[in-house]
Amino acid sequence: MKTLYLICGHEWKLLTRNYGQLVILLLFIAAALYAIHYGNAVIDGQQRTVQYIRQQNALEQQALIKGLSADTTTAEGMAAWEKAAYPSKLRFFLNYYAINEPQPFAKLSIGQRDVNPYYLQLNAQNLYLQLFKSEIGNPRKLLAGNFDLSFVIIYLLPLLIITFGYNLLSDERERGTLSILRIQPVPLHRIILCKLFFWLSITTGLLLLISLIVFVWSGITVGSFSYMAWWMLIALSYTLCWFGLLLLINAFNRSSAFNAMSSLALWLLFLVVIPALLNLSFTNEQQTDPTRLTDFIRRRQGLGESKPEKQAVLDRFYRLYPGYKPTDTAASARFFEFQAYSAFVTLLDAEAKPSVDAYYQQVWDRHQQIADFRFINPAVNTQNLFNLLGHTGLEDAFHFRRSIAAFHRQLSHFCYDPLFAGRMMTKADFNHLPAFDASPPGIDTGPMLKGLLSLWLLTIITAAIAYYRLRFYI
Hints:
By secondary structure, the protein is mostly helical. It has helices at 2-17, 19-66, 75-85, 87-93, 127-131, 139-144, 149-165, 170-174, 178-182, 188-217, 225-250, 256-281, 290-299, 307-320, 329-332, 336-371, 378-390, 394-421, 445-472; strands at residues 96-99, 119-122. The protein folds into 2 domains: 1-35 and 150-256, no CATH class; 37-147 and 284-449, no CATH class. Pfam families: ABC2_membrane_2.
């Protein structure tokens, strides 16, 4: 223990006298603080958008329902009454916003929330034509990603670790002190490990400080303690992984220049080369192109004009959805035209569903194939873990899509029930408006532990090889 204190004290003096390292350390802290601000600004902006569209949607729905009491002696009143009273028109004018609420840790890892839509205007019309609507995004921004705290940890923290520890052993040889260390009663490999422990402690303390700042800044309370613990476990596991890799490079006892170049090459390999190669290997533009799928859905617009053609569509619809088949055919006949169109829209979605499911399955398969290489890519693995924690990954985007499909069925039923029964809407109907709920599931410990296990295995393997070389070959 005394040896550890002496070495750590010596390293601390070197750090305080090395203005280059101090400047790099301050720059890293500044980058982390800006990343915290950026993450909060992006998610706060999304929350303001969510609050605004919710307020507007509530006002629109109130105005629509108010139409049931409108003065039908005027043209404006009659139009307002028809929008609310006719279920066939209500399908068009009763709009909802399906919203994927940002979770607290999304401020730390924005993930794919800037790529996948987090809200969608929805009514009882075609589901997939609404689902495949998207806003225009800046391709350069989407390519660059977000400068959030997860970005700083994944991309910049390894560079800071390299700055600290690329010359743990080579510096002693280049300063002429290695021969002196060899004759000390303390083994050389233990001295190197003590130096590594010092820099690991500095990095861990810095991570704890930054994490405390982001928790307070982002309004994350102790009620999210389990999320905080997962965050620290992921960040520390990634840090240990890089220290293990750096120790392995030092264990080959080469020059400081060689160690620095090798460390930077390793950074480029994990952060740039491997992700690019994986994206190229598992990208099939023809299989995952949504444009063809949208064209497939749009081409099937159009309903026959004759009554037999419309009746044929209704017969097909009733075979698939017998619950909508009216018992009072006389009352139902008054909405025949709108029933036929509604049946056609529903059948169109049913016809498109296999293709849509196949498209999303291809996207998911590609995601899983890349995930299978997490062992050789700790950076992508860690990013995926942060996204799982923030509910900002592809898994949560798929959960949101499934929630949209389930809610669309509720919304369609709300309009179809009176439509196919041949009756008008009443105030009592609007007391049972469907409500959208896309609450994300809790932390899925299975994928989290699997990803962490990959980091731990890589750390253990590299550290074991490095220790063996330091112990027996240096």
